[in-house]
From TrEMBL:
NCBIfam families: TPR_END_plus. The keyword Transmembrane applies. The chain crosses the membrane at residues 21-38. This is Tetratricopeptide repeat protein. The keyword Iron does not apply. It comes from Clostridium lapidicellarium.
Amino acid sequence: MAFKNRRGISTKLFGKIPLKIKIVIFCILCIFAVTLIVKTSYLNNKYKTASGNSHGSTAKSTVIKNNRSDKLESEYKIAQNFFSNKEYSKTIDKANEIISQDDKYYKAYNIKGIALCYSSNYEEGMKNIDEALKLNPDFGYARFNKALAYELYGKYDEALYWYDKDLEIEKYVWSYYGKASIYGRREDVSNTVKFLKMAVDISPDIKSIARDEKDFDPVKNSREFQEVIK
């Protein structure tokens, strides 16, 4: 019985084919193989080029995005400096410039909001702080500023709630201090001392600030308070 190879061609039958036809078949197979190799190489090169262009475009986009982010962060630091120097109008103007470039830059809404609150514009200030929290609910500084704004306007229960909200995500010294100052106004020695000690544990410099803090006047003469600030 004639053996069949993997192509299913009888070796006995193949041996009866004339030499000229064999050569033609061989040439056709060679041409097919070369064509297949060339096509495969072309497709591979095309894929590599397209892939390289794609990566290059992505890298360029990333660089542009990073540069833009760095620029906004630099401008935000200017706004922070204005706020630290109590230049609230300049703080608001700088924050507006940042927002005009990127209306999703939550830090700008936050700094603008607290500056507005210090400028006797509580409603607009809170709207901006809330916008910052809408864009980034876990932004600790916005949670703190919401508590601070409430405290500034005498809404102490709300302020305590938001100081606690800030402390859920960060152990911020001024949130502990804010709580202590509210309890100081309320003549609650126990809670004043409790939260002031937490603030002092983080930053001992708080002692010198607390000594001159008018919010602590109602509890300042207590032995427990004096122990904390000595």
